[in-house]
Amino acid sequence: MPTRVHAIVPCPAPRLSGGRDWTAPVNGMAWLAGGTFRMGCERFYPEEAPVRTAETHGFWIDRHPVTVREFRAFVRATGHRTVAEHAPTQEEYPDADPDLLVAGSLVFRRPPGPVPLDDHHRWWAYVPGADWRHPDGPAAPLSGRARHPVTHVAWEDAAAYAAWAGKELPTEAEWEYAARGGIDGALFAWGDDEKPGGRLMANHWQGTFPHHNAGADGHVGTSPVGAFPPNGHGLYDVTGNVWEWTSDVFTADGGESTCCAPTPAPGEFPRRVIKGGSHLCAPNYCLRYRPGGATGGDRGQLDQPHRVPLREPGARPVRGREGAHTPGTKRVSTLCAPFGSG
Prior knowledge:
Layout: E1 4-5, E2 16-17, E3 20-21, E4 29-39, E5 52-62, H1 68-78, E6 104-108, E7 124-128, H2 155-164, H3 172-180, E8 183-184, E9 207-208, E10 212-213, E11 244-249, E12 272-275, E13 294-297, E14 309-310, E15 329-332
Parallel strand pairs: 5-15
Antiparallel strand pairs: 1-8, 2-3, 4-5, 5-14, 6-7, 9-10, 11-12, 12-13
């Protein structure tokens, strides 16, 4: 299937607001002038449908997910403690065994052989002491991962980091527009061919999930940001490697598949849209390392990192799932520029 490049709506340059040129270069970020694109996918999972027309205005967005090094700087500056570093309470999880209410996070454990794919307990384990400093558990060192995306970060942690940086989390529409890299309607961030010229373009599972990963891309687990080619907007790791948080509340009016994520935790925590898939996504299970790939992230799923955009002060973006199951145009009203970084 051939790909088609959509027409970008140019932003007047320079755009001045509050005496600032919002199109001037921002370190570590890419400027996207905005435009219309076909959002979503109807080929795989019901919660990604329907394909609908969406529109964004200009914004800046991080060129890569937030790294361990960058998150460490935030923690040192603010003293922030992540959700994984706090013990859950009986009030939050009234049906839980009190002995299990200890600080920790979910960690992937590869089973020794094939297992049924309808039981995520075969490969996900709640590990006390697992957090962003100890992504594989308290006994495993973090050394050598400074340029890997930070993981075991709940939505609240991602939002706190973004606020500290003077930014915001992207909406689903902003994230997907950025991830598509100017290639409208393509299956992957680089086109419709999964391995152009035989080259692997993202860090995802090669083999049969969850017991056999051949590591043909050179990585078993997360990879340093920038290990794979950028997309057409100069953004790295928009698909594969790690899931990424967005600001949108997750809805699945058209149905939801059961793959890719543990059962949502009990309680009143709203699920948020997560995008891009991860190194655990495989063609035989969770083929979501695509711009249109999406599912709902729960507070109990702490392995999602994030990247953040800048918008102009006062911009109030319309969420990508407002009426997402009704065909039509969805507008993200970020105006023509980002908000101030302070």
